[in-house]
Amino acid sequence: MTSPAGAESGLVVVDKPAGLTSHDVVARVRRLAGTRKVGHAGTLDPMATGVLVLGVNRATRLLGHLMLTEKAYDATIRLGVATTTDDAEGEVTSTADAQDLTTDEVHRALAGFVGEIEQVPTAVSAIKVDGKRAYQRVRDGEQVALAARPVTVHELDPGPVRPAGDPAGRTVDVDVTVRCSSGTYIRAIARDLGAALGVGGHLVALRRSAVGPYDLGVARTLEELSAGFTMLPIARAARLGFPGLDLSETQAADVRYGRKLELDLAATTAVFAPDGEFLALYEATDAPGLARPLAVFTG
């Protein structure tokens, strides 16, 4: 990572703390970066912690093209209590005695959530219903019924079931590590697991460990950023997020004019000048061996 100066562009991968909204983090980074041109790729609930990818200056345009389709989480699900929000911030809607659930029972039920599944998003999601966010409709007292959507849970690795520590001893917790497609709601997995077991369930902890190629290894806390603001330069971010191709001087000149290139590309590709400058994203055309600019980042 390198320190920004003036109009430098790049990604800031933040290890978001609990209690802040994604917008709160954007506001903090705007002040630290000295620019209002800051955006984020994918929100995190206030309760959640972990990886939040932000773009600064020109890199805000890169966010919309990044293949951030796979995400990873560490979560704790509490069984025996259901809530209005499917997490610990909601009001309790039902309780049941879950203390006799075994690890094998819970693991068998969780196996049903692996693969390509149909998932009903949580009612307090940011999905728009007739132009209005679902969570806002819930806050306004409306009943929200969202349609199931296809999502993919690539891996779901559960730990042992353990007592949750409540005074009555009726609830149990299970930790899970999840690798899934974008759009998957871990809260919905907690809710549906509780329903499948007949005891209700909700999420009590959620930490996002990776978004696409950006993980906690490159993330910085807000305290670290306040002590010395750094960001992932746009060229490195592009090399991490896309296949990369180094061009000749002639090809680089064509890119600066937005011209097509004689390239055979299998996927959206980041192209670079001979000196390493990130120039653009290119994609294949219908004509074999010809590529066109998807987004140019020079000038």
TrEMBL record:
<dbReference type="InterPro" id="IPR036974">
    <property type="entry name" value="PUA_sf"/>
</dbReference>
<feature type="domain" description="tRNA pseudouridine synthase II TruB subfamily 2 C-terminal">
    <location>
        <begin position="242"/>
        <end position="297"/>
    </location>
</feature>
<keyword id="KW-0413">Isomerase</keyword>
<dbReference type="GO" id="GO:0031119">
    <property type="term" value="P:tRNA pseudouridine synthesis"/>
</dbReference>
<dbReference type="InterPro" id="IPR015947">
    <property type="entry name" value="PUA-like_sf"/>
</dbReference>
<dbReference type="GO" id="GO:0003723">
    <property type="term" value="F:RNA binding"/>
</dbReference>
<comment type="function">
    <text>Responsible for synthesis of pseudouridine from uracil-55 in the psi GC loop of transfer RNAs.</text>
</comment>
<dbReference type="InterPro" id="IPR015225">
    <property type="entry name" value="tRNA_psdUridine_synth_fam2_C"/>
</dbReference>
<dbReference type="InterPro" id="IPR020103">
    <property type="entry name" value="PsdUridine_synth_cat_dom_sf"/>
</dbReference>
<feature type="domain" description="Pseudouridine synthase II N-terminal">
    <location>
        <begin position="30"/>
        <end position="186"/>
    </location>
</feature>
<dbReference type="Pfam" id="PF16198">
    <property type="entry name" value="TruB_C_2"/>
</dbReference>
<dbReference type="Pfam" id="PF01509">
    <property type="entry name" value="TruB_N"/>
</dbReference>
<dbReference type="GO" id="GO:0160148">
    <property type="term" value="F:tRNA pseudouridine(55) synthase activity"/>
</dbReference>
<dbReference type="InterPro" id="IPR032819">
    <property type="entry name" value="TruB_C"/>
</dbReference>
<dbReference type="Pfam" id="PF09142">
    <property type="entry name" value="TruB_C"/>
</dbReference>
<protein>
    <recommendedName>
        <fullName>tRNA pseudouridine synthase B</fullName>
        <ecNumber>5.4.99.25</ecNumber>
    </recommendedName>
</protein>
<keyword id="KW-0819">tRNA processing</keyword>
<dbReference type="InterPro" id="IPR014780">
    <property type="entry name" value="tRNA_psdUridine_synth_TruB"/>
</dbReference>
<feature type="domain" description="tRNA pseudouridylate synthase B C-terminal">
    <location>
        <begin position="187"/>
        <end position="227"/>
    </location>
</feature>
<comment type="similarity">
    <text>Belongs to the pseudouridine synthase TruB family. Type 1 subfamily.</text>
</comment>
<dbReference type="GO" id="GO:1990481">
    <property type="term" value="P:mRNA pseudouridine synthesis"/>
</dbReference>
<dbReference type="InterPro" id="IPR002501">
    <property type="entry name" value="PsdUridine_synth_N"/>
</dbReference>
<feature type="active site" description="Nucleophile">
    <location>
        <position position="45"/>
    </location>
</feature>
